[in-house]
Write a structure and sequence with these properties.
Helix content: 25-40%
CATH class of the largest domain: Alpha Beta
CATH topology of the largest domain: Heat Shock Protein 90
Oligomer: single chain
Number of helices: 21
Mean pLDDT: 86
Number of strands: 22
Strand order of the largest sheet: 1-6-5-4-7-3-2-8-9
CATH superfamily of the largest domain: Histidine kinase-like ATPase, C-terminal domain
Low-confidence stretches: 99-103, 114-127
Number of domains: 4
């Protein structure tokens, strides 16, 4: 059929989001126009690029522009472009659903947000600008025809639960979004968007830097006491990244960031870079103030916009920014690249690789400056993006030392404020050779680990590494400032001074003799799960703990590898027991008196299970452990 007409329901998540947009109160509804103009600008960029790549595409690209049309009688505002347009299927996919992961999380956070500013920030991070139309419109009509296609699509909705979609035989190429405006309500920050001056002011504030002309009819004096209507270009169209820094205002940078990122908040930092010589390029990058909701989602998009001689080439150019800096937004405009460049070619292009290196060094040096000159902003940065940046310690060996220098870590020194490695080294005890750390699922789990007991008692500072990436990078770095990293859950621990060693040497030798038979028996009894049972120098209050050899893979890393489908041989670890603990002392005595008692083997099994649970491990047979524990408790009553 040439004129299909359907009434469809919004995807459930899209419907919930629409309701939140329509019924929540926002402090600045003007932003809807910035979002629509930004979408139109993207459509023009895509058409020019498509026309360049597809010589058979019959389109006119001589006068690409955006029109703003106001109808005061009908109370409508239309944003029209002659860009790439959309097919019927694209309209359903892009408008009728939210084709992005993390929707449920977004909705949950939106509902939890206590004020309008927080809600706007979340919506901006999620990037659903089109839906902002329903803040100011009772009904939205979209008419679009994709370049190269003959049929057009008309979409309409009042933002409730459904929308209509219709196929038409004729329409101009591009997209027109018509907002049927709500009545003015200044108490609700809902202004008259049929007012030409108001609309011009919004464009000049938020979209002045758009590289395409934004045109609208404006009433001007005719010189005879009356007015005449003229179509004018209302934006300057100056590429902000090409201007010297002293010729652009802070406000312009902020609005440009919001335009390219679809974030509704100001950036944390602006990074500008200009290279001249062998090859030339300009870069204008931004570090956001908040991590996006999809920062750690595999399907997320990343990268910066790539231009060549101010001609838009692609969004999300991954070749220019490494994975660990995926939160960085911005524009790179290269002078010497071919316009006909693909993502595959970019991966191998020498110039792109050199630009990437310089961008990375510039971003990292900017963070270093922030660290030394503005501690509060640096702490905000690290709180939001530190876990992502640490991925570079594994993936970017060239900048490993720089990343370690700008990194912060939770530590036992301060319950609130993280520490840098330089600060840690300055506080190290005399004679301390290693930077001590312990990985775990959370700060609480690490702080309460039996492995911490001797370090706490002796006053040694320990880094608390609770991000999943921490399990990987500590295995791949050589150290920092000549100090090696040492897990307190691996190898032997000896924190005694030379004087303390001399004083306790005879006592330790005696303990080793006293417990030799028990250690040998336990090693044999638990041989299926541990490689050795030995006395511990790291325990003060717990009966036992499990440690690895210096080069063993940690249990958490072992699980991560298996989750990724990699086969890892089972690694037996070492059970350390505390000779001072009543349970261990009692087990030694019982074994000396009744070595053939079968319940002693169960006690050893329980001791191992408790040590495994104390470090956050998983029992291989939880029902058996529970039954043994219940039987033992019952026999003691």
């Amino acid at each position: 059929m040439d004129t299909q007409f359907e009434t469809l329901e919004f995807q459930a998540e899209a419907r919930q989001l629409l309701q939140l947009m329509v019924h929540s109160i926002y402090s600045n509804k003007d932003i809807f126009l910035r979002e629509l103009v930004s979408n139109a600008s993207d459509a023009l960029d895509k058409l020019r690029l498509e026309a360049f790549r597809d010589k058979d595409l019959e389109v006119d690209t001589d006068d690409l522009h955006i029109d703003l049309e106001i109808d005061t009688d009908q109370r409508t505002l239309t944003v029209r472009d002659n860009g790439i347009g959309m097919s019927r299927d694209e309209v359903v996919t892009l408008i009728g659903t939210i084709a992005k992961s993390g929707t449920a999380e977004l909705l949950r956070k939106l509902k939890e947000a206590q004020d309008s500013t927080a809600s706007q920030e979340l919506i901006g991070q999620f990037g659903v600008g089109f839906y902002s139309s329903f803040m100011v419109a009772e009904k939205v009509t979209l008419l679009t025809r994709r370049a190269g296609e003959s049929q057009a699509t008309r979409w309409e909705s009042a933002g409730e639960g459904t929308y209509t979609i219709e196929t038409l035989d004729e329409a101009p190429q591009g997209t027109a979004v018509t907002l049927h405006l709500k009545p003015e309500d200044t108490d609700d920050q809902l202004f008259d968007y049929t007012n030409t001056q108001k609309v011009m002011g919004i464009v000049q504030r938020y979209s002045d830097f758009i590289t395409w002309p934004i045109r609208m009819a404006v009433d001007r004096p005719d010189g005879e006491g009356g007015t005449k209507r003229e179509v004018e270009t209302v934006n300057s169209m100056k590429a902000l990244w090409a201007r010297p820094k002293d010729e652009a205002s802070e406000e312009e940078y902020k609005e440009f960031y919001k335009h390219i990122s679809h974030d509704w908040t100001d950036p944390l930092e602006t990074v500008q870079l200009r290279a001249e010589g062998t090859f030339e390029y300009q870069a204008l990058l931004f570090i956001p103030a908040h991590a996006p909701l999809d920062l750690f989602m595999r399907e997320r998009k990343r990268g910066v916009q790539l231009y060549v001689k101010r001609v838009f080439i692609m969004d999300d150019c991954e070749a220019l920014i490494p994975e660990y800096l995926r939160f960085v937004k911005g524009v790179v405009d290269a002078q010497d690249l071919s316009l006909n460049v693909s993502r595959e070619i970019l991966q191998q292009d020498r110039q792109i690789q050199l630009i990437r290196k310089r961008l990375v060094k510039k971003v990292l040096s900017t963070v270093k400056t922030m660290m030394t000159e503005d501690t509060d902003r640096y702490r905000t940065f690290w709180k939001e993006f530190g876990a992502a940046v640490k991925e570079g310690l594994v993936g970017d060996p060239e900048n490993q030392e720089t990343i370690l220098d700008i990194a912060s870590f939770a530590s036992t020194h301060d319950a609130e404020q993280p520490t840098t490695l330089r600060e840690y080294i300055e506080r190290m005890k005399e004679g301390q050779e290693h930077i001590y750390y312990l990985t775990g699922a959370s700060r609480s789990a690490v702080e309460n680990s039996p492995h911490m007991e001797a370090f706490t008692a002796k006053g040694y500072e320990v880094l608390i590494l609770a991000d999943p990436i921490d399990e990987m990078w500590v295995e791949s770095v050589n150290g920092f400032e000549g100090k090696q990293f040492q897990s307190i859950a691996k190898g032997q621990v000896d924190l005694d001074t030379e004087e303390e060693k001399k004083t306790s040497e005879s006592e330790r030798d005696q303990q080793q003799q006293d417990f030799a038979e028990l250690l040998s028996w336990m090693t044999t009894s638990l041989q299926d799960t541990v490689k050795e049972v030995r006395l511990s120098a790291r325990l003060t209050t717990s009966p036992a703990c499990i440690v690895g050899d210096a080069h063993d893979v940690t249990p958490t890393l072992e699980k991560m590898y298996r989750a990724m489908g990699q086969e890892v041989p089972q690694i037996k670890r070492i059970l350390e027991i505390n000779p001072e603990h009543p349970l261990v002392a009692g087990l030694r005595k019982a074994h000396a008196e009744h070595a053939d008692d079968p319940t002693l083997g169960e006690t050893a099994e329980l001791l191992y299970g408790m040590a495994l649970l104390a470090e956050g491990g998983e029992l291989s047979d939880p029902p058996r452990f529970t039954r043994l524990l219940a039987d033992r408790l019952a026999s003691s009553l």
